[in-house]
Amino acid sequence: MRLGEARASRRIVFSGLGALGVAAALAGCGGGDGDSSTTKVVGGTELAATADVPVGGGVILTEEKIVLTQPTEGTFEAFSAVCTHQGLLVTSVEDGVIHCANHGSAYSATTGEVDGGPAPSALAKVEITVDGDRILAA
Ligand code: FES
Question: Domain residues of the chain, as ranges?
C-alpha cells in the first residue's frame, strides 16, 4: 500500500529550488504563525519515508511544520520548521544546514542550533522514530 506515500508527497516540500516558490507563497499569505514554535502531531503518525529525506539534506513538512533531516546516512533528525526569528517556515535544507531564506537564518541540520542569521534561538527538536523505511512521530 502506498497511500501514505502519496499523502506524504502532497505535504512535503523538497529542499532546493522548488521550496523557494512555496516559501514566497507563504510569505505572501501574511506571514507565519507567530509563536507556534511547537508542532503537535499524534504519536505514530507517518511523517515521511526514509527515502524521501536525502543524506545531507532534508524535507519540510509544511502541514505539520516539521523539518526532517538526514545529517549522515541512516541518522534522522526532526525539528520544528518554524523559524525562531519571525515564525515563518524554514525554506530548504542543503549541505547539513537548514535555511530560512525569509531573512537569512541558518540552523544545523544535526542539532537545530543557530548557524547564522538573525534567529535568536535553536529550532525545537521533534521526537521521531524510524520504523523500517518509515519515519514516524514519536
Ligand atoms: S523568519 Fe526565518 S529568518 Fe526571519
Answer: 46-137
- The C-alpha atoms of residue 117 and residue 30 are separated, in whole angstroms, by 22
Q: Letter for the amino acid at 67?
A: V
Determine the Cα–Cα distance for residues 47 and 55; give it in Å rounded to an integer. 17
The CATH T-level fold of domain 46-137 is Rieske Iron-sulfur Protein (2.102.10)
Lowest mean pLDDT across 2-16, 30-44, 70-84, 119-133: 2-16
The answer to whether the CB of 88 is under 6 A from ligand 1 is yes
* pTM, two decimal places: 0.76
Number of residues that this document lists for the chain: 138
Helix (H, G, I), strand (E, B) or coil at 41: coil
Ligand 1 pocket, residue 117 CB under 6 Å: yes
State the pLDDT at residue 1: 40
